[in-house]
Design brief:
Number of domains: 1
Order of helices and strands: HEHEHHEHEHEHHEHEEHHH
CATH class: Alpha Beta
Oligomer: single chain
Helix content: 40-55%
Structural class: alpha/beta
Strand order of the largest sheet: 1-2-3-4-5-6-7-8
Number of strands: 8
Number of helices: 12
Strand content: 5-15%
CATH topology: TIM Barrel
Largest sheet: 8 strands, parallel, barrel
Shape: elongated
Distance between the termini: 73 Å
């Protein structure tokens, strides 16, 4: 595959993303959770920004994604949309927000109408397939998610999926079912690289890998993992910059300057005409406030 180019222009559409697969152009996708990070990622040329329910862990400090609500997603997604002009914005449907078709429609309506996202993402196949089909019928672009699905963490644990022939066949079938239901792309998480490559070849829609090797049509990573913000990143992540360490050093230097009286200096302070200050001093402003 050829590397994606950093380009400017109108906001990317579902058709643009699917055309990238046809051209053999790798799709760069990253999570974003707020206005400043979205602005930076958009300027950097990311094609897709995912407002992931991973915000429950990396932003809100929860142990899993399960506490995240539609309100949380809508608030964060709206900030990401405001911070971008080019990237396609996809938002996760959080845990139990798509238990039924009616629930999925309500949650998707909020994310698209209130937050302004361009698509939603949901996990799994099986019972999710008719939900995908109905959302697509209503004009909601849907991205699927197979393999390790974080919302099912209590059932499957955090480990690689589809390593047996039976499980691998099931994953291929699920991917084809999502495509047939109208999903415009599928995330493959923590599945063998050879299997992910096979699925990518079988599907006409893009696959986006995370811990699924280089054979996918694109890659997605978590903002905090690739920038060194937080604890030890997962095996599938590459740390491109140790921003967390740089922030810690900067904040430590600031605190040291404040304690030492080295900040602020005159450069960071507002000045006042000496004559005006003399008037205040002459009137003893506290006991005899100025009236003119």
């Amino acid at each position: 595959m050829v590397p994606a180019k950093k380009v400017r222009g109108p906001r990317l559409t579902i058709a643009d993303i699917q055309a990238m697969k046809q051209r053999g152009e790798c799709i760069a996708m990253l999570t974003a959770y707020d206005f400043p990070s979205a602005t930076i990622a958009d300027r950097a040329g990311l094609s897709i920004l995912l407002v992931g329910d991973s915000l429950g862990m990396v932003v809100h400090g929860h142990a899993t994604t399960l506490p995240v609500t539609v309100d949380d997603m809508a608030r964060h997604a709206a900030a990401v949309v405001r911070g971008t002009r080019r990237a396609l914005i996809v938002a996760d449907l959080p845990f139990l927000s798509y238990a039924t078709i009616e629930d999925a429609v309500r949650a998707s309506a909020r994310l698209m109408q209130e937050a302004g996202v361009g698509a939603v993402k949901l996990e799994g196949a099986g019972g999710a397939v008719p939900i995908v089909r109905r959302l697509v019928e209503l004009g909601v672009p849907v991205m699927g998610h197979l393999g390790y699905t974080p919302q099912s963490t209590h059932q499957m644990g955090v480990r690689a999926q589809a390593r047996s022939a039976k499980a691998a066949c099931r994953l291929v079938e699920d991917a084809l079912a999502l495509e047939a239901a109208g999903a415009f792309a599928v995330v493959l998480e923590l599945v063998p690289a050879s299997l992910a490559k096979l699925v990518s070849q079988r599907l006409t829609i893009p696959t986006i890998g995370i811990g699924a090797g280089a054979g996918c049509d694109g890659q997605v990573q978590v903002w905090h993992d690739i920038l060194g913000l937080g604890g030890r990143p997962p095996r599938h992540a590459k740390v491109y910059a140790h921003i967390g360490e740089a922030i810690e050093q900067a904040l430590g230097a600031y605190a040291q300057d404040v304690r030492a009286g080295a900040f602020p200096t005159e450069t960071e302070s507002v000045s006042m005409d000496e004559g005006e200050l003399a008037i205040v001093l002459a009137r003893k402003a506290v006991a005899d406030p100025c009236t003119s």
